[in-house]
Amino acid sequence: RAKKAGPGTVCFFEVSDDRVSRDRKALQADLEGAIAREELFLVFQPFLDLGANRITGFEALLRWQHPQRGLVPPSEFIGIAEETGLIHEIGEWVVRRACATLSDWPDDIRVAVNFSAAQFHNTGILQTIVQALADAKVSPSRLEIEITESMLLSKYGSAGPILNALLELGVTVALDDFGTGFSSLTYLRKLPFSRIKIDQSFIRDMLVQPDCAAIVKSVISLARDLNIDVVAEGVETADQLEYLRQISCDEVQGYLISRPVAADAVLKLLDTKKLRATFAA
Ligand code: C2E
Ligand code: MG
Ligand code: MG
Ligand code: MG
């Protein structure tokens, strides 16, 4: 890249790349102690069931409160965690924390936890999840695991047996960011998914691009025939919500319904009648 840009810019790119990698190393070093320093925490974003007009659960989303940088989003540190192997320790913390939090919620509320492909390279993850559920005394059927298509690609070899063991326990599996990967329908045959989550890019464009609406509609109709529920991610406007209701989308998630909230705000959110009033059909 530096060569193509010409001799005058070589130095600039080298310095810049160097700084980026130094910054990355610094972030990596900080991340190593983040759990011990209690800088990680989870926020929870609700799923709203459009048929029943109620919140059915929450997705756990990881946050890092860095002492100097402030709040670091997962897009900036999950990749580092995956490359360094820290994802195993972090992922274990996430699932234990999510299950412990879930134990305070009503029995008909689920929690969904995101997993990276790398976490399934370590077969210990199965025991970790089983132990987290047992320690929190919550039913496995209340835990959902969110994975992306890429995990079922080359990595299927290691993820498959673990996911199947979890399914046998009653844990459910959702296919996250649907439509952004290869979206081969073959994936839908690999595992008995409970849910498909249509990526937010489709929801954002569906009311402005007819092609996009067609895709969203056919995913919903396909899922219905396969007996899989559909969640629309990233719902931000009332028009989007109305359209998704019309085409019988099962559940929605997005800033319109609620931003991710702190654990101690979850019960309040479940309590509030405001949600129902606002989104009643
Ligand atoms: P994801 O699982 O697809 O999560 C959805 C992301 O969209 C979240 O970003 C959420 O805050 C955001 N979002 C929700 N509603 C809206 C909306 O209406 N509009 C817009 N523009 N965005 C919305 P977040 O929390 O920054 O997480 C980003 C990604 O990081 C997640 O995507 C997931 O892949 C990953 N991630 C988060 N927590 C974990 C974790 O504990 N473990 C692993 N392995 N990955 C995680
Ligand atoms: Mg997710
Ligand atoms: Mg997603
Ligand atoms: Mg339903």
TrEMBL record:
Ranges where the EAL domain occurs: 24-274
Coiled-coil residue spans: none
Tell me where on the tree of life, at the top rank, the source sits.
Answer: Bacteria
Q: Under what name is this protein listed?
A: GGDEF-domain containing protein
Q: Please give the range of the full-length protein represented by this chain.
A: 373 to 653 of 653
